[in-house]
Amino acid sequence: MSRILITGGFGFVGGRLTRRLSEEHEVWASSRNIVSDTLLRLHGNVRRIDHATLLDRETFPSFIDTVIHLAALNEVDCVKYPSEAIRVNVDETRIVLENSISQGVERFIYFSTAHIYGAPLRGTITEETLPVPTHPYAITHRAAEDYVVAASKQNKIRGTVLRLSNSFGAPVSPHVNRWTLLANDLCRQAVEKGSLTLLSNGSQFRDFISLTDVEEVISRMLMLSRPPEHLIYNLGAGLSMRVIDMADAIIRAAVQVLHKNLPLVLPAGSAPSAEPELVFSIERLLSEGYLIRNDVSLELEKLLQFCAENFRPAMTGNK
After folding, report:
1. 1 pLDDT exceeds 80?
2. Domain coverage including residue 192
3. Which of 79, 83, 139, 204 has the fewest C-beta atoms lying within 10 Å of its C-beta?
4. What is the pLDDT, as a whole number, of residue 224?
5. Widest pairwise Cα distance in the chain
6. pTM attached to this predicted model
7. Per-residue pLDDT for 147 more than 50?
């Protein structure tokens, strides 16, 4: 059993990891905000730690052996506040990493993003593909990666960088602000509006990975006694699908969960287009025995059920 600190442990990916890993390990989750007892219980057997304490060497906890670092500004806020993105995503990562080293943390797992490879993602992408980040979110994550890799190469800590593709699934709390993500947005639309609306023709290819698969990879990574063979891993499904195919999968899942056949609305005049395919290679992970189940239908059904429980419009009318 490890003693794990998850920064951003009440967020979208972090919340799911906190809940899952607290079943197997001692887990502390950091937050910049006060966390209610109700919200804390939703995340399992976890203890909250004030994120500010991680930014001071004197108050950084001395009992942690693994840090999973997810605390970062999202892609929307990175555009709105680019200077803050540098401060939080780059400099605070450096500080948390350095304080982890000073307190004897053995392992540092950093969640980066597939979008460090550029936008839009296209062609075959491996860990050897040259990064060409163009978005502030990707640029800052790419810079933070270098600190983790450098510390690991200097044998200061065992570092691992995970370049995460488009994750989807139900968050632990409906208040997690990640409803701009495609699959999550469409599932919420299905419940609130009774239809799905795309802003494009949906022909673009993306790699979608379920949060359940993300949980499984991290759980196995922590259980293995041997260290990972590489510093950097792509973490995705390894199978790309078009945006419109994801929308169709949500419509099929809605029949099972909501018992409705929902319409899909495309922009006026939309027509299918030939878009470059995407192969987000995860062969490096697979070669080391990790398993990606890629059960899209099950994850979507759970996400739709979560949306139905939290966002179903209130019934109105006279009694």
Report:
1. no
2. 182-207+239-311
3. 83
4. 85
5. 71
6. 0.95
7. yes
